Amino acid sequence: MVFLENFRIALAALRANLMRSILTTLGIIIGVAAVVAVVSIVQGLQYTITQQLQGVGATFIAVSPKQDRGNFPGVAARQVKLTSDDAQAISEKVPGVKMMSPFILGRATVKFKDRKHNPFMIIGATENYQDVTNQTVDRGRFFSQVDLENHRKVTVIGPKIADELNLGPNPLGKEIYIDVYPATVIGVMEKKGQNLGMDFDDIVYVPFDSAVSLFGRNTADQIQIRLLATGPERVEQVKDGVGRLLRQRHKIPASEPDDFEVQTQDEILKTVNKVLGSVTAVVGGVVGIALLVGGIGIMNIMLVSVTERTREIGVRKAVGARRQDVLVQFLIEAITLSLIGGGIGLALGYGLGALVAKLIPGFPPAHVPIWAVGLAIGFSAGVGIFFGIYPAAKASRLDPIEALRYE
Amino acid sequence: MALIELHDIYKVYDMGAEKVHALNGVELTVERGEYLAIMGSSGSGKSTLMNLIGCLDTPSSGSYVLNGTAVQELDDTQLAGIRNKEIGFVFQTFNLLARTDALHNVELPLIYAGLSRQERRERARRALEKVGLGSRMTHQPNELSGGQRQRVAIARALVNDPSILLADEPTGNLDSTTSEEIMQLFDELHRAGNTVVLVTHEPDIAEHAWRKVTLRDGKVTSDQATARATGSDRPAAAAPVS
Fold first, then answer.
1. Nearest Cβ partner for A323 among B77, B85, B89
2. Domain extent listing, chain A
3. Sorting pLDDT into bands at 50, 70 and 90, what band is B90?
4. CA-to-CA distance for A334 and A389, rounded, in angstroms?
5. What is the interface pTM, i.e. ipTM, of the complex?
6. Among A170, A307, A323, B109, who pairs with B160 as Cys (CB 3.0-4.6 Å)?
């Protein structure tokens, strides 16, 4: 009863000094808003990436040429290669490979009648691509082996391409131009959305050989390979096999590092989580400092408030307030102050996260997990208690006679 | 049994090098229903005595029995309880909570008494009506005159039905007309059966009481009935109990 009453008294006191209360709690607001904004963005990223990677399945393996040639001092001239022949060798010689899909990436303008569009990327792939990367064609079909063998001029497009080129309700059969090469649309991919700045709906797929003629011979020397192992238990074996085979084929001496990368789904997930985890940790540290500063601000104002209200404390004691009543009153005031800050910070941070996610095209929506809400609230309450206890104890120990005499 | 029994009370303040004897063996008994004025110049120890009677402080030695409770043995928390139940303070400077309306100010002791919101509201309203402020309940102290503020303070002192109404220079901050009105209110409250203890240095204020105790250098130097006590308006309720 007295506790509830103390809560009312605390709220009334905070309302009486509204501006001061807001300024005091600003440190907490900023701290909590910062952590929630970053966590919401990072969590959003993590959530979407995890979803997508899990979508491709546990047997998924990516093989890519190593990008950072700066790591090979003195051998900068060596061309890092990953070729169709490498891909072919993998699928023939490495046991445990269920499916293999080589592909190349490039950019080109697409045209239909007077409409032009620059897709996010052009992917030159084989008929397996769809199955290896676990994608679905919404309408029509993906390339077949027959298309590839007969060098048919066909293309499969993302849903956004159909819109951008104004292909109408039925894009199938329409002939579009990719750079100067005509191609007939035989399929439209299912809508996948955006992630990490990549628009998966803004992609044009062409047969592997068409892409080679589109982008030039040397692009075929730096391809990407995606594999599926026959089962999750064989993933490590395939990874080792691919590594050994490629080192042998690329004639890499034992002292030199790989000029390619083999990553399993599990490893990609771990890498992503590691990066995002360390971002969260760094931000957490900064926010810890912000909350510390915010807490000191609260302590400062509470001390001022105790001095200002010395007489009030004296009156309360004279009419029967016990030490613990005064202690609880001021403690609740400090906690309320920091909790309100935490609440505002939470809302602000979420808004900020959502806004950032919305402003950056291709960014996944912000996602605030329950633990972050709990953490923000718990932490601000903790700050209130920690920094409020000293001023509250000071108030409770005031001698009523002195307090009543205080001018 | 008397309401207040002070026996051989000493209060010594340790001021570093020297010890100050604020009270030097005070003997005082106050019966229920009395109307008492404690007089004395500044430094006589009357404020110290008032703080002791009001249970804001404890004596260095001696015994104080208030309404059957040996106060000198109580700890801080118990003293707070006694102040809440037995004492109604009225201060010279009113000591109302700012930005808090009259009703909530009067409610204050009842919060610490642990009463329900509804009962607090009801009793505070009755107390305010008793002091003639029924129409000013939602006014804040800065919207009230000095006399009205003191009435709110008196209502606050009365609201928990204390054994003693303890007023420290209640008219010290008021003009003479308002002072007279406030003193008439105390007279009325006394007639209604309340025990009133006034602390004052003004003789004409002290004349409202029926008994006058004078302090000097921490000792009671005189203890006598005032002119009023022999007057005609002596109520039956306050007949001397001896």
1. B77
2. 2-52+271-405, 67-258
3. very high
4. 8
5. 0.91
6. B109
